[in-house]
Amino acid sequence: MAKKKTRNTRGRIIDAAWKLFYRQGYDDTTVEEIIEESGTSRGSFYHYFQGKDGLLSTLADVFDRKYEELSEDMAPDMDRFDQLMYLNCELFTMLENSISLDLVARLYSSQLVTRGDKSLLDHGRIYYRLLRQIVLQVQQRGELRGDVTVNEMVRVYALCERALIYDWCLSGGDYSLTQYSRTMMPMFLQGFRAGR
User: Fold this and answer.
1) Bridge-partner residues for 193, per DSSP?
2) H-type helices in the chain, by residue range?
3) Which residue segments constitute the domains of the chain, with CATH numbers given?
4) Contact in structure between 47 and 38 (CB atoms under 8 Å)
5) How far apart are CA 156 and CA 151, in angstroms?
6) Which secondary-structure segment (H or E) carries 125?
7) Around Cβ 18, how many Cβ atoms within 10 Å?
8) 73-128, pLDDT tens digit by residue?
9) Model pTM above 0.90
């Protein structure tokens, strides 16, 4: 039960922080406001995070929760390749509509300079587990090449997503990430299709 309470407290802090970051911007959000919005205490906040900057890497948690929600909504009979494209499209739509470009850029820059937690590369995340599950099913059906490992395909998929997001940040969000991805992700992944 203690583990669930820990997850709930940490989750409430993360949810409150990202709600405030989106509503009023990262720079204009204080730790005190996050504590108040989350209904937690100062001690709880500092138990999980060293400060506001520590919350930047939790954007990966936000992504994971989105992937978890999406996986529950997917029709079980949906083509697995289409599932991958669906997950990508929905995640990128959320990025464009719910998270400021500045915050996404801060996450990516924090991942480049941090010495510790590289949350985007944590293969224990829901994101990676779900992708491995889908890719394995597609490969077992013979729809993806058998000479490339599931882990390598997932690595390339994640790399492509990060590259698209990174370029979108560099470009200042001057194009639709979702629309561009609808064209590019299938092109990136075609090389893994069986018989190609």
Assistant:
1) 144
2) 2-24, 31-38, 42-48, 59-73, 80-98, 101-113, 126-140, 150-170, 177-189
3) 2-49 (1.10.10.60), 56-192 (1.10.357.10)
4) no
5) 9
6) none
7) 21
8) 888 788 888 888 999 999 999 889 888 888 888 877 777 765 666 777 788 888 89
9) no
